[in-house]
């Protein structure tokens, strides 16, 4: 289904590409990493599918499900596992110890079994660049990073790191010769309704999240990834909680990310859906809402899984492009898990998407 590559900054210059064949003799086909300075001369014969979902944690009724991580998200694994690459936002601190941040209204913490639960659900990449990753301070981080290392290669975690370099390092995933780079970053501290978390930013000497309040580091990371990967996905934690329309700040950053080389930009933090559609050569989904969440209340319980079909292009001139999108509409139940809806509920979901797309200023 997918083949994760080793995560390291150095590999940004050694992603998998299809080598240009010598006239004689014909080289044997290979799926091993090769020199990324050799551009792809022909697009891959088949597009790939990327499934993206919103916020996941293991609070409330969801916590007990971690007693059996292999089935914790079992009711929602089908479409996630069927995609070539599945990505979610893991909105909780991971580990044991530490103490709840006294400045925050809500603090979340889950055991390392959460990583196995995601992997067993068919999720390949989880971003932890959000305003809950350090809810219990930095004390649990050593154990969390050890658990992240153990989870690989089944699950790759982005958007958090032992330093800023690691936090901004993308996950590199080879799907039948198409290399996808996935980055995670957060702007949650710009939300006036949220608790301040800017002090959690990873630096050159301290662990933390990939902070994009100043987006220059993120934009450079996107440009670097675009230079070697065939498809670039950026998952951003941004916007204002409860709002269905993106802020001007979200719209500005989305445009800059696409200009920098992002082919797909998705996000969360509003705890409800926001518009999705085309933005120039890129595809943007501003808000994916909650996905596995402990509160079911109105718009926050409306959710869905977005599957994008992406075709890579010949490089260096060409860009990957989303050629098809499909939503699987769902509603979060009392157990915290989404259940697919049909009939009138699905029709309302589609109507809402059209309205949300208009206020996001995106093309169908």
From TrEMBL:
Any one Pfam family match given in the protein's UniProt record, by short name: PGA_cap
Disordered: annotated span: 17-46, 190-209
Domain Capsule synthesis protein CapA, residue spans: 49-295
Compositional bias (Pro residues): 20-30
SMART domains (UniProt xref): PGA_cap (SM00854)
Sequence similarity: Belongs to the CapA family.
Protein name per Swiss-Prot or TrEMBL: Poly-gamma-glutamate biosynthesis protein
């Amino acid at each position: 289904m997918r083949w994760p590559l080793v995560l390291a900054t150095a590999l940004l210059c050694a992603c998998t590409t299809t080598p240009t064949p010598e006239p004689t003799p014909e080289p044997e086909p290979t799926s091993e990493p090769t020199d990324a300075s050799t551009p792809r001369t022909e697009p891959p014969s088949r597009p790939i599918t990327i499934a993206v979902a919103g916020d996941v944690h293991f609070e409330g009724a969801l916590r007990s499900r971690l007693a059996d991580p292999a089935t914790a998200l079992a009711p929602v694994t089908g479409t996630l596992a069927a995609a070539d690459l599945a990505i979610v936002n893991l909105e909780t601190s991971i580990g044991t110890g530490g103490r709840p941040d006294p400045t925050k209204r809500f603090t979340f913490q889950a055991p390392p079994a959460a990583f196995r639960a995601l992997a067993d659900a068919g999720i390949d990449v989880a971003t932890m660049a959000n305003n809950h990753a350090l809810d219990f301070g930095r004390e649990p981080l050593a154990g969390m990073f050890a658990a992240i290392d153990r989870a690989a290669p089944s699950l790759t975690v982005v958007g958090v790191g032992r330093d800023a370099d690691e936090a901004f390092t993308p996950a590199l995933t080879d799907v039948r010769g198409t290399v996808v780079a996935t980055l995670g970053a957060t702007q949650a501290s710009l939300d006036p309704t949220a608790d301040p978390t800017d002090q959690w930013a990873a630096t050159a000497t301290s662990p933390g999240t990939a902070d994009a309040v100043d987006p220059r580091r993120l934009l450079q990371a996107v440009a670097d990834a675009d230079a070697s990967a065939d498809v670039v996905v950026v998952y951003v934690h941004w916007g204002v909680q409860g709002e269905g329309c993106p802020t001007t700040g979200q719209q500005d950053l989305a445009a800059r990310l696409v200009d920098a080389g992002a082919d797909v930009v998705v996000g969360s933090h509003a705890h409800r859906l926001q518009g999705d559609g085309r933005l120039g050569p890129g595809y943007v989904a501003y808000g994916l809402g909650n996905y596995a969440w402990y509160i079911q209340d109105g718009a926050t319980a409306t959710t869905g899984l977005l599957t994008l079909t992406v075709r890579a292009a010949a490089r260096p001139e060409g860009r990957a492009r989303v050629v098809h999108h499909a939503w699987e509409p769902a509603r979060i139940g009392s157990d915290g898990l989404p259940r697919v809806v049909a009939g009138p509920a699905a029709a309302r979901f589609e109507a809402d998407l059209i309205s949300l797309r208009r206020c996001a200023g995106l093309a169908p």
